[in-house]
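Next comes this protein.

***
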Amino acid sequence: MDLGLKGRVAIVAAASKGLGRAVAEELAREGAEIAICARTPADTEKTAKAIEASTGRAVLWQAIDVTRAEDVQAFVAAVEKQFGRVDICVTNAGGPPSKKFLEISIEEWRAAVDLNLMSAVFFARVVLPGMQQRKWGRLITITSMSVKQPVDGLILSNSVRAAITGLARTLANEFGADGITVNNVAPGYTLTDRLEELATKRAADAGVSREKIFEQMSASVPARRIGRPEEFAAAVAFLASERAGYLNGTTIAVDGGWVRSLL
């Protein structure tokens, strides 16, 4: 299937590893021009070179702090200078720490809001005007299956990522007439460093092995396995495509069926 992504310009945030990296690589493989950002310069440059090697496409990269509006604005300006525009923006950020409510400080709440919600706001504010002017755009937010079914021990993620989903749904209403779609993709248990960290903490709390935790995770999924980053990336690539022009304001769970709700 031709997704119509050849020549499109895509930004992927937090793309030095995990789901962000998989998404950037998939979009590059489909022919899009790619710009990635993440916090650590060495990791971001290494990923850019790896994507270039695997896809044959040059990757623009910058190390930025997505909690700083000025960093996001400067990064988008660099992308526009290099490629002329931004067609696709995939917002993404690392997950907040796994803690229970009474263990979380006010500062940690603010940090989670800045990292996850405000970073998405910053990107949206910068890229949407250009998309609106050109009457075409794709804004895709990456959150978590917790926006559909809260996960025990992840109250920061459950709360803040739900806010991102509300943001995306409202932006879909506001900009849909401009040829812009805004959708949210909610990953389930997927083989990333973030899942490794979560499994390690759960194992320590429960006094069992990490292997046991992974077994429990797999058993809770109807597919009876953990997902692969490339499977998640394929869903994002479709949402970014010409083919998905009538998909707007939705949250798609890529979770092997873990979420049990009807919607």
